[in-house]
């Protein structure tokens, strides 16, 4: 049975899953549409307003409404609203749309630690620099509640992995010694909220990054589907800790139409795998075998033990060819 037929909604990551720097990833749009499932786009990227994200989704061919987007900035506003009264002063270290969300929630957005904000909200923005980071640090040193939209250290773009919000947060943490609460993935609240908005009782969480998308979906008790089009690659999947292991994984979103039994860790494509100490040895395969089949074969063995795989070695022509394409 096709994967999509076993669920009633998709909870989709964006960066590295649907697009890279706004450019659609091959097969992503087609896979989402062909699934026939309602979708909610759940993104840790807090740099743009939900309506702007929805507009861009429509521009690449996805029929997204503004209400189909849930950003970590929205989640951060919800989190801080539970902790401080409406009308409070807050310092927003982020994009203009993040500031607008705070104002719409009834907070007074200030630009200096000297204005005595009682909370600091930090989300990704390419415009953040030393001055803004320093104001945030001063406010936190004076007792302000500190909430980050997300802690992703990198952001997938067309040229590669750029600096993410978590790396900017690290500068403030270094200066203050205060670690923020994070509203975004891998915490489960965004997944619960997204499923509730769709009225979904059996959603499938889809993403590219093990320690946010997959870990968050797992923490929410949902099945998870990883595409290897973004941050976490073949070797990361093989070495994934239990909390970050996807239910299924594939090279592209087009696999949503494949039989679910073909996407779970299991021996495939004529490959075999065994452990020799901390080395996983991959062998077998045929001229028609694919690298993703070799990975599913390898993970079936690696995940079945407590052994931490330190190295991977191939034996034979087809296994060697597959392993060469893991990077």
TrEMBL record:
Protein species of origin: Corynebacterium durum F0235
GO molecular function, one term: phosphatase activity
Residue ranges crossing the lipid bilayer per the database entry: none
Domain GCN5-related N-acetyltransferase-like: 268-327
GO cellular component annotations of the record: cytoplasm
InterPro entries: GNAT-like (IPR041065), HAD-like_sf (IPR036412), HAD-SF_hydro_IIA (IPR006357), HAD_sf (IPR023214)
Name of the protein described by the UniProt record: HAD hydrolase, family IIA
Keywords: Hydrolase
């Amino acid at each position: 049975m096709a994967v999509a037929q076993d669920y009633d909604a998709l909870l989709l990551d964006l960066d590295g899953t649907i697009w890279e720097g706004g450019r659609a990833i091959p097969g992503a749009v087609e896979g989402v549409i062909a699934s026939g499932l309602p979708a909610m786009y759940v993104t840790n990227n807090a740099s743009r307003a939900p309506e702007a994200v929805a507009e861009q989704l429509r521009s690449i061919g996805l029929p997204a409404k503004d209400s189909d987007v849930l950003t970590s900035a929205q989640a951060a506003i919800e989190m801080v609203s539970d902790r401080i009264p409406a009308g409070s002063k807050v310092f927003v270290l982020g994009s203009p749309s993040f500031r607008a969300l705070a104002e719409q929630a009834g907070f007074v957005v200030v630009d200096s630690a000297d204005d005595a904000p009682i909370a600091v909200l930090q989300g990704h923005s390419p415009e953040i620099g030393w001055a803004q980071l320093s104001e945030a640090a001063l406010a936190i040193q004076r007792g302000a509640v500190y909430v980050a939209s997300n802690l992703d250290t990198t952001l997938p773009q067309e040229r590669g992995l750029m600096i993410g919000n978590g790396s900017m947060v690290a500068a403030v943490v270094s200066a203050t010694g205060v670690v923020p609460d994070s509203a975004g993935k891998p915490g489960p609240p965004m997944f619960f909220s997204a499923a509730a908005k769709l009225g979904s009782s059996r959603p499938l969480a889809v993403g590219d990054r093990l320690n946010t998308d997959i870990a968050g979906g797992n923490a929410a008790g949902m099945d998870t589907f990883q595409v290897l089009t973004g941050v976490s690659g073949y070797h990361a999947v093989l070495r994934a800790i239990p909390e970050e292991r996807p239910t299924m994984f594939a090279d592209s979103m087009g696999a949503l139409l494949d039989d679910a039994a073909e996407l779970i860790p299991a021996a495939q494509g004529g490959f075999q795998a065994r452990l020799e100490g901390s080395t996983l040895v991959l062998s077998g395969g045929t001229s028609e075998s694919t690298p993703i089949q070799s990975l599913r074969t390898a993970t079936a063995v690696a995940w079945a033990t407590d052994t931490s795989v330190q190295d991977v070695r191939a034996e034979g022509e087809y296994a060697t060819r597959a392993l060469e394409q893991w990077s």
